[in-house]
């Protein structure tokens, strides 16, 4: 339950938090050692539990008896075929559907019909409170993909695996991975879940990755220089390996980088979309066209959508070269391996996401990169 003024409504969950107060869940449920035992639970005194205890503050809300279980349905249809040389090919359609997913937002947002000049706090559904952080579990998601993979077991000095996926992932909000089930990436209108349904923050239309290990056919027991001696010691026994990944850029949401003048007191203020926003030849100095977006009129929501543009793609190739030498004087298992590895061997710049804040000087600018070439050498002695 939550109290405020003369309002009372069901929905109390033990350990509810008043934001910024000493009765938050952080203080009620601190970390403790098992040897010490749990501390005595702290609750507001009877004198403090007045109807207006939370007035003017932000509170959390969780439905008491109307929380449907979230579930994910998955389906898979695939065919496999083994080719000559021990190569296995697998092609499949893979899909899923999520229902009753967490959608955290402020249910005390001012409704669009009440946006306008004046004291917006008085237009909130529950004006005695500031924000009401709630999770009503009315989110949903969908995923569809074609997946193709090939794999070769080690034979004749070669093994590899490669995977290609063509897919589309959509949802009403992508969890950030921290902040609990209430934390999703972006929302503008708290009471219109359907308006937030768009590409997932993690949507990758095309993804290719794999790994290859190849023993060079040189040296004792190999096709070339099949003999011992100095030639084998120098040229024989080398192993070449690589790992690679290429994928499309992740989607992002252009949003207003200026003060939120919608008067809703909650959510992300999205711009009005005047054009497509994409560029034929994007660069790190202008990844998208900021002039395709404009600030909405005060006391209105923007008509632009969530995750409508896509950031830079990703490509990375790792290359390794290794050779092992037998060291008989330390035992039959004596072996020395020297290895060189290069990360991002092509030295391809994988740029980060552009600045999505419309109305700021850096809108559309990419200011950082995620990878750079790294070369390392190592040795391992086994006995």
Characterization of the model:
- This protein has 383 residues and is an all-beta fold.
- Mean pLDDT is 86; it is low at 1-29.
- The longest helix has 6 residues, at 230-235.
- The radius of gyration is 29 Å and the shape is elongated.
- Strands 4, 5, 8, 9, 10, 11, 12, 18, 19 and 21 form a 10-stranded antiparallel β-sheet that branches. Strands 3-7-6 form a 3-stranded mixed β-sheet, with no helix packed on it. A two-stranded antiparallel sheet has the order 1-2.
- It has helices spanning 25-28, 230-235, and strands at residues 2-4, 7-9, 59-61, 71-83, 87-101, 104-106, 132-135, 139-155, 158-171, 198-199, 206-215, 238-247, 251-252, 255-256, 272-273, 293-294, 309-310, 314-326, 335-343, 357-358, 374-382.
Please give a quick description of this structure.
This protein is mainly beta and 383 residues long.
Biggest sheet record: 10 strands, antiparallel
Number of strands: 21
- State the end-to-end distance: 67 Å
Shape: elongated
Radius of gyration: 29 Å
Which structural category fits the helices and strands?
Answer: mainly beta
Order of helices and strands: EEHEEEEEEEEEHEEEEEEEEEE
Continuous helix count: 2
What characteristics describe this protein?
383 residues; mainly beta; three-stranded mixed beta sheet; 21 strands
